[in-house]
Amino acid sequence: MTVERIVPADRAAWLAARGRDVTASQIGALFGEHEYVTLFSLWGLKTGRIPREEEETPAMQRGRLLEPVAVQMLRERFPRWKIEHNAAENVYFRDPEARMGATPDVIATAKDRGGKGVVQIKSVEASIFKRKWLDQDGEVEPPLWIALQATLEAHLVGARWAAVAPLVVGHGLDMPLIDIPLVDGVVDAMKAKVAEFWAMIEEGREPTPDFARDADAIEAIYHADEEAEADLTGDNRIMALLAERAFAKEAIGKYGTRDAASLIEAARKLPKSIKTDAELGDFGLVVTRLRALASTVDGTRKDEGKPLLDATRDLNGWFNELKASLDDARTRLESSASDYQRAKEAAKRAEAAEAARKLREQEEAARLKAAETTGAAAARAEGKADNLASAADRHEAAAEARTADLVRTSIGGVTASAKSVWTFRVKDYEALAATMGPLGPYLAQADVEKAIRSLVKLRKGGTSLPGVEVFEDTKATFR
């Protein structure tokens, strides 16, 4: 096999070079596994029936702008690799005999991986990554068309290994590195599919469109003057096409039930046990298509529910904002009231404690006098001491009374009171985090404080945590 390495002068030259071949980014369409390109739309592009888009789409722009970020992340994560950002120069590799080509994003040389390899970079929004790149067990599994792309790139470059690096864009950046096994026979299958594709074009044959996916391609190929009229009298094929289109729309509307039923039936007909590699391949084909359709169904569910969710989100947003403003105003007033009631409580307790102290002193003096006298004088002194003791008991009880009993008052039809609550403040989060072991760095501080709040509510003053102060506070109440 002879592979040409083309360094294009500009983007136009790169696009022209790619136009002669089925490229790695398109190869999945020949297997019916591409998310964006169908066999019919690829045929339209390669025959010139569909104009080649020269302008950069928003998705292409996002990928182009984020690709250098991903390359830098690779270099920081694998400092011993020799990393070449091949796509920065649009260096194109092609097999002129097979008419297949590729522009790998990254060509890396890693001794720990046996030498040269390719890394395909994809930028993916976090929710889409979760929906399309994770299997039912939460394991990362790239879409098949992307795995095929990386496989063809590795073949053309002569690489010993291939990987995909999805740059997951959310609140932060994450980029797992996913190895793509280079399976014997896959490239041969690609060559066979590509040969069939070019033979179809050379013979003037046209693939059957997928009416559920190829509406735009059909419009681009068969568009006519808006004012032109076509006489289809006697041409009943248009009725069949319309019927098929209606059926396809109905199937889409039912979330792919037609395809689901056929795939489930195909799965049912497979043998219960696998005896040969060929049967294993049959199982794999059905499994991948079941997974892809399940993902499509789930995506359709989300798309169908999105208008309702958006409306609910807007409605909740308006009411939540209003409620937050009301709660903010109430919280500010309650905070001031709590400060006042807290000071009032402290003054009442201090006043009662001081009164009790003075009464105890008077009680002690009366009992000394009773001890120094006799008869009626002693009895009167002892009676006075008992009365003083009772008064001191009442004041000591008042000093230890419930918060509400100390500060409750009614003004203008509103009863203002207060309650004692156990609360906390984190004074040293590092000391607290040290008790969490290996989970500490992965727990948000807000979640940790929520857990502490529940613990304090349960254990009250018996709560003991490093770096956390637990105390009893006064909170104003109104009714």
Q: What do you see in this structure?
A:
- This protein has 479 residues and is α+β, with helices and mostly antiparallel strands.
- The protein folds into 3 domains: 4-221, Lambda Exonuclease, Chain A, CATH 3.90.320; 272-322; 406-479, no CATH class.
- The protein is built from 14 helices and 13 strands.
- Strands 3, 6, 7, 8, 9 and 10 form a 6-stranded mixed sheet that branches. It has a 4-stranded mixed sheet with strand order 1-4-5-2, with helices on both faces.
- A hairpin with a 4-residue loop joins strand 6 (106-110) and strand 7.
- The chain is elongated and about 135 Å long.
- The relative contact order is 0.07.
- Residues 224-228 and 251-256 have low confidence and may be disordered.
Keywords:
15% strand; 6-stranded mixed β-sheet; 14 helices; 54% helix; 13 strands; Lambda Exonuclease, Chain A; 4-stranded mixed β-sheet; alpha+beta
The CATH class assignment of the largest domain is Alpha Beta
User: Which value, in Å, is the CA radius of gyration?
Assistant: 39 Å
Query: Which architecture of the largest domain per CATH?
Result: Alpha-Beta Complex
Low-confidence stretches: 224-228, 251-256
| CATH topology tier name of the largest domain | Lambda Exonuclease, Chain A
The multimeric state of the shown protein is: single chain
Mean pLDDT: 85
